[in-house]
């Protein structure tokens, strides 16, 4: 039986990286691989443990077919290695830190994708973004407004179905909800 693609999406600052780090061992116990993305951000940049490459390296990798999925957002390029197709074919589930803006393309390529939207109370998200210090207050407020509009549109669209995970509280609670969402029903 083929594995399932699990596509985790959410705004910057929602805690996707923290959630994946906290859940990694328990996901592995369930036969679920967490994918390391390729990003055109320096390896020294704070955030997920992604493979940092230059824009030129990314373009070359993309042209050579190195990615199953790729997209551009916020001035960066993101790629999901094509080896996920091999993992899915051998029955492994694969969890991808994806993009809300690339969801439709992902759904076209992987029609049975399981979509998990990590949400956070706007006030909590604002505090997290301020603490990161990457953007000005004006930029953060603009990001929060875009996030609210984006999530509203995303949730109104029923295909594919989107499962909500609230990460406003303790991380362990969110890990438990993640595991419930992806656990396979007993045969």
TrEMBL record:
Q: Which is a GO BP term held by this UniProt record?
A: 5-phosphoribose 1-diphosphate biosynthetic process
* Residues that, per the record, bind ATP: 10-17
Instruction: Give the EC number.
Output: 2.7.4.23
* InterPro entries the UniProt entry points to: GK/Ca_channel_bsu, P-loop_NTPase, PhnN
Which Gene Ontology terms cover its molecular function? Answer: ATP binding; ribose 1,5-bisphosphate phosphokinase activity
Return the SUPFAM superfamilies for the record: P-loop containing nucleoside triphosphate hydrolases
User: Pathway of this protein?
Assistant: Metabolic intermediate biosynthesis; 5-phospho-alpha-D-ribose 1-diphosphate biosynthesis; 5-phospho-alpha-D-ribose 1-diphosphate from D-ribose 5-phosphate (route II): step 3/3
Record keywords, A-Z: ATP-binding, Kinase, Nucleotide-binding, Transferase
Q: Keyword check for ATP-binding, yes or no.
A: yes
Give the reaction(s) catalysed.
Answer: alpha-D-ribose 1,5-bisphosphate + ATP = 5-phospho-alpha-D-ribose 1-diphosphate + ADP
Q: Name one GO cellular component term.
A: cytosol
Domain named Guanylate kinase/L-type calcium channel beta subunit is located at: 2-186
Q: Please list the coiled coil stretches.
A: none
Q: What the protein does?
A: Catalyzes the phosphorylation of ribose 1,5-bisphosphate to 5-phospho-D-ribosyl alpha-1-diphosphate (PRPP).
The UniProt entry's sequence similarity note says:
Belongs to the ribose 1,5-bisphosphokinase family.
Q: PANTHER family given for it?
A: GUANYLATE KINASE-RELATED (PTHR23117), RIBOSE 1,5-BISPHOSPHATE PHOSPHOKINASE PHNN (PTHR23117:SF8)
How is this protein named in the record? Ribose 1,5-bisphosphate phosphokinase PhnN
- What broad taxonomic lineage does this protein's source fall under? Bacteria, Pseudomonadati, Pseudomonadota, Gammaproteobacteria, Pseudomonadales
